[in-house]
Specification:
This protein is an alpha/beta fold. It has helices spanning 6-18, 40-44, 46-52, 74-83, 99-104, 140-156, 174-182, 205-212, 247-259, 278-296, 305-315, 317-320, 326-330, and strands at 25-32, 59-62, 90-95, 164-167, 187-188, 223-227, 230-234, 267-274, 300-302. It has a single domain (23-337), classed as Glycoside hydrolase/deacetylase (TIM Barrel). Strands 1, 2, 3, 4, 5, 6, 7, 8 and 9 form a nine-stranded mixed β-sheet that branches. The protein binds zinc ion.
Length: 350
């Protein structure tokens, strides 16, 4: 005989699914790989973070220029990069227009403008040059070639890049945005608030960032950007990177987001660091996460950028009402590029 309350039980899961969840703050933590060098001291620094926070995934913006250096040993570079990756991390793309990478893409290398402003010309390094050249120095076609080459090179070395991108020095202007969209990138995380960059206020960079992202502040939430090649979903780097932000400032930044939760709306924030300065600045991120967890518990969720983007796309009411209809939004289809536990990548290091 059917129990009297059978239907009640049958409906329970549905009811649970349709109940609005408590709004939360979604925190993505990114790593910018500059393409300069891979040293043991920085790669080993990731271990402390992993040990302290094993369930906090990272979004890596990888750079293909490690593979184009004149003396690069691809096998060693692969192994070095893998030391810093973990299951559940996301792989995105970061580009600084290094000479070796630009030329590998069949593009003429440019030496200016640099990200530091006109008075500061590019310096030539021992192994490569071009890190401080603005990505906007290149035409859309040229930058598209550099993006394609980067993706191909990284894939050939076992690093399949997903749909997230960050421009070198946050300078994703119109040409860069169109170029990355042509190659299939759907999420950009170059928008940032130059208020964080007081340490480099004497250079031209903060003004260049401000010119590209004039209305972006540390409170800016995800928004859509139109390019000639289609829409891009902008997930702002609201908390910049640890070289410019202390542990206290990071946790204050999340406190502020928690306080701004209202009208049943989730908030999205971003913090991060550079691989090349991980030994020095990653401890700030590790400490900030500890403070954030202790203060806010389940009100804050740590996730990859792409997971955050998917969530924001579906739940952010500002996005739903900003003039872009649901049809355009539905054209943004995200395919998860989170590292799967598959056999292809080998069993070690992920
Ligand atoms: Zn960078």
């Amino acid at each position: 005989m059917m129990p009297r309350n059978f239907w009640l039980f049958a409906l329970l899961p549905l009811t649970a699914c349709s109940t609005p969840t408590t709004p939360r703050v979604h925190v993505s933590i990114s790593v910018d790989w500059e393409g300069r060098d891979l040293s043991a001291i920085n790669l080993n620094a990731f271990r402390t973070l992993r040990k302290a926070h094993p369930n906090v995934p990272l979004t890596h913006f990888l750079n293909a220029a490690y593979f184009t250096k004149r003396d690069a040993n691809a096998t060693r570079v692969q192994a070095d990069i893998r030391k810093a990756l973990s299951l559940g991390d996301e792989l995105g793309l970061h580009i600084h227009p290094w000479q070796s990478l630009v030329e590998a893409a069949g593009v003429n290398f440019r030496t200016k403008p640099t990200i530091w402003g006109n008075g500061r010309p590019m310096r030539r390094g021992r192994r490569d040059a071009g890190h401080e050249v603005s990505v906007e120095a290149y035409t859309t076609d040229e930058f598209e070639a550099i993006v394609r080459k980067s993706k191909t090179l990284l894939a050939a070395n076992g690093f399949e890049i997903g749909h997230s991108f960050r421009a070198g020095a946050w300078l994703a202007g119109p040409r860069v945005r169109e170029a990355i969209r042509r190659v299939g990138f759907l999420v950009d995380s170059s928008a940032t608030d130059t208020a964080w960059h007081d340490e480099i206020a004497d250079t031209g960079l903060p003004a260049m960032i401000k010119k590209i992202w004039p209305t972006v502040t540390r409170q800016t939430q995800p928004f859509l950007v139109e390019t000639a090649a289609g829409m891009i979903f902008e997930m702002p780097d609201t908390g910049a990177l640890a070289d410019y932000v202390t542990a206290q400032e990071m946790s204050d930044h999340v406190d502020e987001a928690v306080n701004l939760i209202q009208n049943n709306q989730d908030r999205y924030v971003h913090i991060g660091f550079h691989q090349e300065t991980a030994a020095r600045y990653l401890p700030r991120v590790t400490a900030a996460i500890r403070t954030i967890k202790a203060k806010h518990g389940s009100l804050v969720v740590f996730e990859t950028l792409e997971t955050s983007a998917q969530h924001a796309r579906q739940n952010n009411s500002t996005l739903q009402s900003n003039g872009h209809g649901p049809q355009q939004l539905s054209n943004l289809r995200f395919a998860l590029a989170i590292l799967p536990p598959d056999q292809d990548r080998g069993s070690s290091g992920w």
